[in-house]
Amino acid sequence: MKPTIQEALNWASLFLKRHNREEKVGELLLIHVLGLSRLEFLMRLQDPMAPEKYDMFKQMVESHATTGIPLQHLTGEEQFYDRTFTVTKDTLIPRQETEELIYYLLEDLNKRPHLTDVVDVGTGTGVLGITLKLERPNLNVSAVDISDAALGVAKANAKRLAADVTFWSSDFLSALIETGQSVDVIVSNPPYIPYSDLDSLSDTVKNFDPHLALFSEEDGLYSYRTIINEAKQVLRPHGLLAFEIGYNQQEAVTALIRSAFPDAIVETKQDMFGRDRMVFMYQDV
Q1: 246 annotated ligand binder
Q2: What CATH number is given to the structural domain containing 130?
């Protein structure tokens, strides 16, 4: 007998719970496998599942439960700023904190319409650069990454979402420096986790997110130090710098910025949980 959608969901919830995984993953995987909206899913819980769909679903649930492979690697996508982005093993899975970085940056750009040339450093899936371009079409957006595989994903996302973003293969801002380019805004969610924190991370993160996008030398500060130093050659005198940071890096990142840009204003912004998660630098306040 074919199991109903509800029976499949019940099985998944129990299986995930036994393996100390979030039960919600079962519902999300079912919706993906069935190709339904959440409302359609809820309305069809008593419908039987096709055997091939059930087998696919069961395999995904078991894989996630036993290995920790992220939901997004099983579905190949993640939502960011109400848009669907393709993700792969070569890209960092977009996080909610990064949506807040976009929100605050857009607020600042509304107050500073003269800032139009933007570069997203370490673009990964392209969520920062692509979202900025789609939310503010007047911006001229470039995005750089050292990973050619990640750039391929970002370019595909930009094409599918019709975002006119220019992509560069670059180690931080080196390509812009070499070609003599300058910008008004530098935004980045760089690698910032110290290698010493590796063992404390969940298996879904340390075993599946690319380490190139996660970890940084110098207690997690190498990426910030490099971008800030290179920004002195790239950022225009009235420019803006926006970083996502680790929860305990506010003082260190602020000090690095003030050392390089002593006349600038540096502000810390909190995420929805009240944690210091973004640092902004303004030169035109």
Answers
A1: no
A2: 3.40.50.150
* 138 is an annotated ligand-binding site residue: no
Answer yes or no: is 190 within a domain: yes
Query: Is 195 annotated among the ligand-binding residues?
Result: no
Q: What is the pLDDT of residues 29-86, one digit of tens each?
A: 999 999 999 899 999 999 999 999 999 999 999 999 998 888 888 999 999 999 999 9
Expressed in percent and rounded to 5, the helix, strand and coil fractions of the chain are 50, 20, 30
Q: Say whether 190 counts as a known binding-site residue.
A: yes
123 is in an annotated binding site: yes
In a domain, 208, yes or no: yes
Residue 126 marked in a binding site: yes
What does pTM read for this prediction? 0.88
Q: Within this chain, do residues 102 and 160 fall inside the same structural domain, yes or no? A: yes
125 is in an annotated binding site: yes
Same domain, 101 and 43: no
Query: Quick one: 132 and 190 in the same domain?
Result: yes
